[in-house]
Amino acid sequence: MLRWVITFFILAVVAALFGFTGLAGTFADIAKFIAVVFVVLFIAGLVYSALTGRRSSPPM
């Protein structure tokens, strides 16, 4: 998920360099949204591990 955040951030920077400010803003908003989802899922995983004493296995 962090790869998606980095990808959209790079796309936002490139779009801003070429003058596509609307597109750059959209890419930045998408990157922020995915980053927030990542943080929420990360904290949920930490709470799950703390409450159950087990590690959660990520889906492969």
UniProtKB/TrEMBL annotation:
Coiled-coil segments on the chain, per record: none
Record family assignment: Belongs to the UPF0391 family.
UniProt keyword annotation of NADP present: no
Superkingdom of the source species: Bacteria
Transmembrane helix as UniProt keyword: yes
Name of protein: UPF0391 membrane protein PQU94_17355
Membrane-spanning parts: 34-51
Organism: Asticcacaulis currens
Membrane topology, as annotated: Single-pass membrane protein
Keywords: Cell membrane, Membrane, Transmembrane, Transmembrane helix
InterPro entries linked to this entry: DUF1328 (IPR009760)
Pfam families noted in UniProt: DUF1328 (PF07043)
Main location (coarse class): membrane
Subcellular location: Cell membrane
